[in-house]
Amino acid sequence: MSEQKHLIKNIFSLGIVQVANYVLPLISIPIVVRIIGPDSFGVINYYSSFVAYFMLLINYGFDYSGTRFIAIERDNAEKRNLHFTKVLYAKSILFAVSTLIFFGALTFVSHSYNESKVAIYTFLIAISWVITPNWFYQGMQKLTQVALFNFLSKLLFNVLIVVIIRQKSYYIWQPLILSLSQILVSAISLQYAIRHFKIKLLKVPFKTVLDLLWEDRMIFFSMLATNLYTDTNIVILGFYETKEHIGYFTAAWRLMFVFLVLLSLPTSQAMFPYIAESFSKNINKGIEQIKRMLPIVIYASLGFSAVLYLAANLIIHGFYGKNFDATVVIFRILTIVPVLSFINTVLGLQTMVNLKMDKAYFTIVFSGGLFSVIFNIIIINFYGYVGCAWSWIIAETLIALVLNRYLSKKGYKLFVPGYFNPLAIADEMKTLIVNFKKGRSAKISNNNQSV
Questions:
Q1: pTM: predicted TM-score of the whole model, two decimal places
Q2: Does 420 fall in a domain?
Q3: Which of 22, 80, 194, 288 has the highest CB neighbour count under 10 A?
């Protein structure tokens, strides 16, 4: 009862504040995009995708491996302090490596002085990824803090964007504003985590940090493989299409990501430490939790995707304006992404990783990513940015099918027909709600007694 109540509270609190996080861009982005146009918007998003490789390297999958460790050891202050220190040092080392590679590659990808400035300003956000302790908050199941600090950074960014971006040539300041606001809030978040949880940074040997990187390498490789069919699509697109066409594609891609975050990420971030803890106690318990939750979120995401598909024309024109007519067809293609993304997250990161199937997970995702890269190079030649959108869908679908096939062969069948019955889902939802209400009433009663 307590665990279910805590899960619902995490999903609810993170979901509500995440809505606030992503409602703000719905106000600022339409204003800015109408000023800078599809071509400048394409430049910003192109270098954002390029810098995403370095963000991936710095983060190194700690949002999952670090979260998993803290979720299991959150009552052990000594182990928490040691792991927190190792992750911070590891990210610092990876940042140094990323900086060297970034400036070495910049001369090959930048085509003008302004584009170089956009790239550098975008890369500065890497500093925030070094110091942010979001992975630690998730492991401690303190998701309200994660959402709060995210909200502050988005609020600061959007206010500054609306005030500063007044003409087309000012588009270069957008990534700088984003990076500086994120760095500031991440620094505050780090300081709060250290003080609130009484974290002590320890002296750890360099070899210990390298050992951590080696242990978590498969999760990093899996995240890198995922990047092959997301951000890499945009980088490949940049070799064949104009920045304006990149703008059309990334307009749909970015907006779909907003809706994906609104639906999938709050649930996934709340579920992961909860499921990780269940797996640490009993594998069967963890599997059972996934079986029961999977149908609920799949049905919800399918309904959400259907609404987005039907309202695509209204959403794109209302959000970006008439200059982005070409974005509507891309957006409609991508409306199935929330469903596929959630399925792959549950099957891979929340099931296979917790079952220590890291290598198998990496192999499957990497194969899917490699297929996506090759398929993209071929299909973009014929269908341009529309083909790029279909490539993403096809890659996600193939990965989902192979992940499910692999788990089934290992004896873990997560898609149980009986659990997808609407009556079974209704009963499960009622159980969760009743337990949540009981837990809430007991908490209020205890508080009254203490007073």
A1: 0.70
A2: yes
A3: 80
